[in-house]
Amino acid sequence: MEYFYTVIILIGLYVVLASSFNLIIGYGGLISIAHPVFYAIGAYTSALLSRDFGVPIVASMFIGAAVAVIASIALALPSLRVSGDYLLIASIGFQLGLLELIKNVSWTGGAGGLTNIPSFLVQSVGRETYVALVVVVAVLSVWLVRSIAHGPYGRALSAMRDDELAYSALGRNAIATKVSVFALGSGLAGFAGALYAHYFRYIAPEQFEILQSAAILTMVVVGGMRSTWGPVVGAVMLEALPQAITFLNLPPSVLGPLQGLLFTGLVLIFMFLRPQGLVPAGDLWRATGDKDAR
Amino acid sequence: MTGVLETRGLAKRFGGIVVADDIDLTLSAKRIVGLIGPNGAGKTSLFNLLSGVEKPDAGSITLDGKPLVGMRMHDRARLGLSRTWQNLRLFPSLTLLDNLLVAPRHYASENLLTLFLTPGAINRAEKVNREKAMAILERIGLADLARSPAADLTFGQQKLAGMARALMNDARCLLLDEPMAGVEGQSYTTMQKIVRDVAESGVAVCVVEHNVAFIRDLCDEGIFMFAGKMLARGTVEELIADPRLTELYFGT
Q1: DSSP H helical ranges for chain A
Q2: Which domain holds residue A68?
Q3: Which residues of chain B register pLDDT less than 70?
Q4: Is residue A143 situated within a structural domain?
Q5: Which of A27, A118, B240, B247 is deepest in the core (most CB within 10 A)?
Q6: Rounded distance between C-alpha atoms, residue A31 and residue A71, angstroms
Q7: A48-52, A133-137, A194-198, A217-221: lowest mean pLDDT where?
């Protein structure tokens, strides 16, 4: 049962990560792959504040998300002022640099990882409550991204993606639009990180490497960029399938590579057979009330 | 009469090419000024300097007395400077109506904090903008197409749509870049009437146009531009009648 809960929690967290990343890369059109680094910032901040400074866990989780928001603004504001392409380069640099820093200072636990992170809810009220909390957060994130992306703000985002010059000439602040959407998406990732840290109670820098970026990107692309349900389907499928084959009782030497193959194989299949993803978004922006809004 | 929009000594060059050379332009309320001249004369470049796409090398621009040079494009629009584009620049992923709905001078839902903290105000603003956009589409004759994707409209309809979008600003000064190119029949008449009505409502209008008949019927003043300079100004009839300008226009 504990294994089952773990899988549900991981799926829930990846739903948050994929949906928030979809807000950034899909709806916002911002090319960054550093999403896991904000997941890491949330996780480390919340873990360290509660473990070493006695901050209540709920407060440290929110602070973790807030620090992710601040870091994302600090990254996006200067790079977006230069140009949109610059964000990609800056984000990769930021991800590599920050993880290197985490690996090389002692108070983060270094490359070996941070242990003894205080547990939240599990010991006091039980594992089920934590599972419920993660599911609620996942549902709220999907709802939040949907109401933003398919509301008046999303209409503006869509216009900005189409033609930034015309968008600015109408009186819309393109930089502010981009930075806000980047900050919100990163804040959600930060909160997911905090939820991860206080359940698994151990985090290590290698979990937030470029491979993780690829995983989240794949969930969004395979699921369907710029649709509400695409990243949800992508997260469930790509998180559940590799877990499911662990039940086949294969020897670990086969299982590991098989999971990798499954992942890469899915990407290749989708690239050729269904490039628009499982839940295609359509060419036209739709408001939430519209029956065609996905 | 003081102008709504004024430039003094405006200059801009790209390498060796001079696109604006000592431009003194005054656009006044209720008046329509037409810019004419051959391709490459600097007409669109002037619009780009005014709206903030390009930075001038020298000179000043003021809108209702406020200096615009150094101000970002969206801030100029928020002061009431609105423009259209020669190549339209409609948003293809939006319906015609949604193209208009992102265009009001102030867009309440642009700020995420406002969006979360004052949902009631957002809903009210959306309702007001929707009514206004529908009224403009009604006026311009495209109300039936409000829900169509902007990309599905005919070229003439897209021109009118670009005009309609620019009207959402309730602008003090409206810059129209070739509003008539490719527009025929009913759309032509509609466009003419709209431009005239907008000017009469107190807006300072400037039109870049190659359609001489359109500009002659509409403009209070014509300015002939060549190689970034304002060569001559007067009524459009006077400019057309000047053999020297005709020669420059058509080349020899």
Answers
A1: 2-21, 35-52, 57-82, 84-104, 127-149, 152-162, 164-169, 174-200, 210-223, 230-244, 252-273
A2: 2-208
A3: 1, 252
A4: yes
A5: A27
A6: 17
A7: A217-221
For B109, the closest of A151, A161, A163 (CB atoms) is A151
Token couple for A133: 């909390």
- Taking the C-alpha atoms of residue A143 and residue A137, their distance in angstroms, rounded to an integer, is 10
Cβ partners under 8 Å of residue A195, min gap 6? A9, A13, A61, A133, A134, A137
Chain A hits for B86, CB-CB cut-off 8 Å, are none
**Res B252: pLDDT:** 55
Nearest in space to B22 (alpha carbons), one of B68, B59, B62: B59
Lookup: tokens for A254 = 């086969």
CATH superfamily membership of B1-80+171-252: P-loop containing nucleotide triphosphate hydrolases (3.40.50.300)
| Interchain pair B74, A283: CB under 8 A | no
Which pLDDT value is given to residue A250?
Answer: 77
pTM (predicted TM-score): 0.91
Which residues does A52 contact at the CB level (< 8 Å), separation at least 6? A107
Written as one string, the DSSP assignment of A125-166 is: T-HHHHHHHHHHHHHHHHHHHHHHHTSHHHHHHHHHHH-HHH
